[in-house]
Specification:
The complex is a heterodimer of chains A (315) and B (340).
Chain A: H1 2-17, E1 32-36, H2 43-59, E2 62-66, H3 73-90, E3 94-97, H4 106-114, E4 119-122, E5 134-137, H5 140-154, E6 159-165, H6 171-186, E7 190-197, H7 202-215, E8 221-224, H8 227-239, E9 247-249, H9 255-262, E10 268-271, H10 274-289, E11 297-299, E12 303-306
Parallel strand pairs in A: 1-2, 1-3, 3-4, 4-5, 5-11, 6-7, 6-8, 8-9
Antiparallel strand pairs in A: 10-12
Chain B: H1 2-6, H2 12-24, H3 28-43, H4 50-75, H5 83-99, H6 104-128, H7 133-152, E1 157-158, H8 162-169, E2 171-172, E3 175-176, H9 177-195, H10 197-207, H11 209-214, H12 219-245, E4 247-248, H13 256-266, H14 278-297, H15 302-330
Antiparallel strand pairs in B: 1-4, 2-3
Helix pairs in contact in B: 3-14, 4-9, 4-12, 4-13, 4-14, 5-6, 5-7, 5-12, 5-13, 6-7, 6-12, 8-12, 9-10, 10-12, 13-14, 14-15
The chains are: A alpha/beta (315), B mainly alpha (340).
């Protein structure tokens, strides 16, 4: 009764208000690339979206950024599935996909493939590599290698280190450790005396490093597979009164870590260049749509960040 | 007629539309769904395609199953916030059991038993031990959320099974299997609600527990059963997501509890109990998905979508409560209105 009437009124309201958002109808002949990313609230992904939009403008394509409302792995996946279905229904020309869940997204991406819409995989690999045209992202092995080299140079090329891994089984962590191992072959005087996981978590890293410091007080440096753990390690080192003596390296160059670099608590980290990730993904999609030869992997170069460039590395 | 006196300030045309709606007994929310579809079809030329409407239906299935199970709990003027956790647990159980090489029967039955067990614990503690339902279901929610993360080791577990993939992504007669399954489940629930004593008892308990008890209804027994059905359907919803993804994530159910509640309340089932039903929930779920899909097709930012959907939910709930209060004042609230 009244609710029904109320609903009618509400719809009238929606009809009145919403057209303001319905800008930019697809122009005739303009091709559309949908970029599905993990969220639009974290600075990293906002930069990715900016880069993608810039590339769209430069190459003359309509770029639409889509993000799930929920960002947790499971519910995010469900909403990304809906976004993909909408893209198919809309008949877009290409989809750039960053899965929140690289396994559960497979049946969804298979539907895109069925609809003959080329897929560019960005940042996080889809677990089935037959589904996408090309992958755009970092080479985590190189990122780990570059950071490790900077760390080892800072140690004067010799000494003892801990390696703090991310979540067990996480590909980023495995690859970054591989990068460290690669660097270790070039620095024979560096010795790994402990290697443990702290699940990419600041509090866990604090505990793990505190315990390790008890057992090995003579350590010279700590390599962490992300910044959060590096910050945890920095706290542990701080508590032991060894800030500056024990050098710590992170990955990602988040704001807290940059602050810690300025304070001298973290020695070096690495910047994943999200703007270029978004830009390169759209560029790859354009290459596919224009029938150019596409490489299997578009590597986005990372930057080592230390006290010298901590204020300027984003430029 | 009650409706006439209510609508005396409303234009005659709306009244006659209303009388027509009442005659054919379509819930108001269904009209809202239809209007939304019309609206989004005008706003986005690609919205009204068979592909999009089918994918809205398919994407509604898992939430619909969970929300239908929750409807009866809310009908008895209680709540169950452990729905999402059971969804997650069932979603990870399927690939884990399947990866162990167990026969498909066990893979499918074990999550359902888990759902029934959680439902029984909820029901027993609430109905028999008289604990508060918020506290109890919040407890089981934490328990199952944690356990799901533990058994899955915090990761999405993928599996390979032609059968599960067929259930989740296969088609029969041009429509996804999962939609058929949901339709069958909802039909069964609807039959129970409308044609059995058990169904009527739920309304009676929701209307007034004391009156129901005095008139000889076994309140404790009915409550436990309703909670078990809620757990079972949440588990089936979780299994359905596992089939659709051919993988299970321990966080897949994170937002199910709230979304299911939203769907139930949008569908006209009041938290006060005794009023509403499954049909409303079905259309409530569809409304959530239609809104999400339509807003996204109009290229509205996801953060705005969240706000708009929230606004719709809040206004409808407020409207519902105001409506109820007014009816209560007039003394014309009829418990069985939506049953028949």
């Amino acid at each position: 009764m009244k609710r029904r009437i109320f609903m009618l009124l509400l719809l009238v309201l929606l009809v009145g208000v919403l057209p303001a958002w319905n800008k930019m109808e697809k122009a005739a002949g303009e091709q559309e690339i949908v970029v599905i990313i993990k969220n639009n609230t974290v600075p990293f992904w906002i930069s990715v979206a900016d880069g993608a939009r810039a590339a769209g403008e430069e190459f003359g394509y309509k770029v639409t950024i889509k993000t799930p409302v929920e960002t947790a792995e499971g519910s995010g996946n469900e909403q990304q599935a809906q976004l993909v279905d909408e893209a198919i229904a809309k008949g877009v020309d290409s989809v750039v996909m960053t899965p929140v869940d690289s396994k559960a997204i497979i049946p969804v991406v298979a539907r895109l493939k069925e609809a003959n819409i080329p897929i560019i995989n960005l940042n996080t690999r889809i677990a089935d590599d037959t589904l996408y045209e090309t992958f755009v992202g970092l080479e985590n092995i190189n990122q780990g290698y570059d950071t490790a080299k900077a760390l080892f140079d800072g140690m004067g090329g010799k000494g003892k280190i801990f390696i703090i891994e991310g979540s067990t089984g996480a590909q980023t962590s495995i690859d970054r450790v591989k990068g460290v191992e690669k660097a270790l072959t070039e620095y024979p005087e560096i010795e790994v005396i402990a290697q443990q996981s702290a699940n990419y978590n600041r509090a866990e890293a604090l505990n793990v490093v505190q315990n390790l410091l008890q057992a090995h007080p003579d350590v010279d440096a700590i390599f962490c597979c992300n910044d959060e753990m590096a910050l945890g390690a920095a706290e542990a080192v701080d508590a032991a009164g060894k800030t500056g003596q024990i050098k710590i390296s992170g990955q990602d160059a988040n704001d807290d870590a940059c602050e810690a670099i300025r304070e001298g608590k973290i020695f070096v980290t690495s910047y994943g260049n999200p703007y270029m990730q978004g830009y390169t993904a759209v560029q790859a999609a354009v290459d596919v749509l224009e029938g150019k030869e596409v490489e299997l992997f578009y590597e986005v170069k990372t930057k080592v960040v230390n006290i010298d460039n901590v204020d300027t590395f984003k430029d | 007629m009650v409706e006439k006196s209510i609508n005396k300030n409303v234009p005659e045309i709306l009244c006659s539309i209303n009388r027509f709606i009442n005659k054919v007994n379509i819930p108001g929310i269904a009209i809202g769904d239809a209007l939304l579809i019309v609206f989004f079809s005008i706003m986005s030329d690609r919205f009204l395609s068979s592909y999009n409407l089918l994918s809205i239906l398919r994407n509604s299935c898992t939430l619909m199953i969970a929300a239908v199970g929750l409807t009866w709990v809310i009908l008895m003027s209680q709540n169950n916030v452990s729905v999402g956790a059971v969804v997650s647990m069932a979603a990870v159980m399927v690939p884990i059991l399947n990866n162990k090489g167990l026969p498909m029967g066990i893979v499918l039955v074990m999550p359902m038993l888990m759902g029934l067990l959680v439902g029984f614990i909820n029901g027993f503690l609430i109905a028999k031990m008289k604990f508060d339902y918020w506290v109890v279901t919040f407890g089981t929610m934490s328990l199952m959320t944690g356990l799901a993360l533990v058994v899955a080791n915090g990761e999405t577990i993928s599996t390979t099974s032609k059968f599960l993939n067929f259930i989740g992504n296969g088609k029969f007669a041009g429509i996804y299997i999962i939609i058929w399954l949901t339709a069958i489940l909802v039909s069964i629930m609807l039959l129970i609600q409308r044609k059995t004593k058990f169904g009527y008892n739920i309304y009676s308990i929701g209307g007034s527990e004391n009156v129901a008890a005095i008139s000889g209804i076994n309140v404790v027994d009915t409550r436990i059963k309703v909670h078990m059905i809620s757990g079972l359907l949440a588990a089936i919803a979780g299994m359905a997501t596992a089939c659709m993804n051919v993988a299970g994530s321990p966080t897949v159910g994170n937002d199910y509890s709230f979304n299911a509640m939203a769907a139930v309340v949008l569908g006209g089932t009041a938290f006060a109990g005794g009023k509403g039903g499954i049909i409303g929930t079905v259309f409530g779920t569809l409304m959530l998905r239609i809104l999400a899909s339509g807003l996204s097709m109009m290229d509205i930012d996801s953060t705005w979508q969240k706000a708009i959907i929230g606004l719709v939910i809040v206004t409808l709930i407020v409207a519902d409560v105001l409506n109820d209060q007014r009816k209560a004042v007039k003394g014309s609230r009829r418990i069985y209105r939506d049953v028949i």
